Amino acid sequence: MVNTPEAFATVSIAARGFYALEYLLFDPQFSGAANPAYHCTLVRAVTVDIAANAAAILDDWQEGYAALMIAPGNDVYRSETEAAQQLFTAVTTGLEFTANARLGRPLGSFDAPRPNRAEARRSGRSLRHVQLSLAATRELAALVSGGNAEVDAAFAQAEERAEALADPVFAGVTDPLARFRIEALQQDIEALRRLLTERIGPSLGIAAGFNALDGD
């Protein structure tokens, strides 16, 4: 039994983070816990752990990693091209994950849609996560591409289509017409990624590197 944030820090990574918190707050199996006091203690432990990890990431960035990227010619980034490639890969990987996981998982196939696999469906934030990811990726893409107008227009189209969905948890994957609209958003994002990898990247002399979504 976990009674303190310090004890929770030793728990498996699979039981930590925002998704663990979502289960505790929104899943009936956990939100209606028989022991409310312990449930509250566990929620606090999860949130303290999330805050500690976020603070550590920010500190690592501000106190060292950012400087390595801004001034390449070090053991991490040997050149400006390597630093730019890292940022470019972050953009394309973000788009890939949104298309394949955030949208692809609930879409499944036409004969076997999987709405229960939508990210953050318990808290009703599946679509919101897509929108936030597009907004953040759009900002980074603008920096990497030098404010390329075609890239920005493609992001704007994807964001407008997402806004028009009005389907917070992608329940529409089971309905042919609603499914078509979700697939159209997925196609917009895939086209945007191709635009970046096939045209924008080469024009800048950079290419996406390996990412965590690549196979062995």
From TrEMBL:
Keywords: Signal
Domain of life: Bacteria
A matching Pfam family: Peptidase_M75
Protein name: Imelysin
Tagged with keyword DNA repair: no
Keyword Transmembrane on entry: no
Annotated Gene3D superfamilies: M75 peptidase, HXXE motif
Ranges for domain Imelysin-like: 4-195
Primary location class: other
One GO cellular component term noted in the UniProt record for this chain: cell envelope
Location(s), subcellular: Cell envelope
